[in-house]
Amino acid sequence: MHIPCEPSSTSYCPTTSSQPQTPSTPQNNNTSQQPTEANPIEKRGRKASATTMPVSKKHYQNITNQRIYCQRRANYIRNLEIKVSTFETLYFDAQDEINLLREKLALLEE
């Protein structure tokens, strides 16, 4: 059985061979993509931490204003989507009416 040793330790470390031990290194080079306690995966975007509060009043105001802006933008986009859907229904209704009137006109011309 192999028990890895710390390179800086001077205490006795039992090993299966009499060769000096080197610190074990992983075989793949994707160690930065594997989550561990010492090396969590870094995520993009704002790092929201529930444990830390804003340090200054200005920082707190910036965070509050950012939230308000995002809510306002989301409401604006939601209103635009509602308008688009109503205009689409009006457009399709108008197209149907135009086609119906064209058919009536074609029947009257005959």
Summed up:
GO terms for molecular function: DNA-binding transcription activator activity, RNA polymerase II-specific; transcription cis-regulatory region binding. With 110 residues, the chain is an all-alpha fold.
What does this entry look like structurally?
Residues 1-57 are annotated as: Disordered. It is found in: Nucleus. Residues 7-36 have a biased composition (Low complexity). This protein has one helix at 57-109. With 110 residues, the chain is mainly α. It is elongated and about 85 Å long.
The class by helix and strand makeup works out as mainly alpha
Q: Distance N terminus to C terminus? A: 99 Å
Q: What is the mean pLDDT?
A: 76
Strand residues, percent = under 5%
Main location: nucleus
GO molecular function, one term: transcription cis-regulatory region binding
Subcellular location: Nucleus
InterPro entries: AP-1-like
How are the SSEs ordered, and which strands pair?
Layout: H1 57-109
Top keywords for this entry?
single chain; 110 residues; mainly alpha
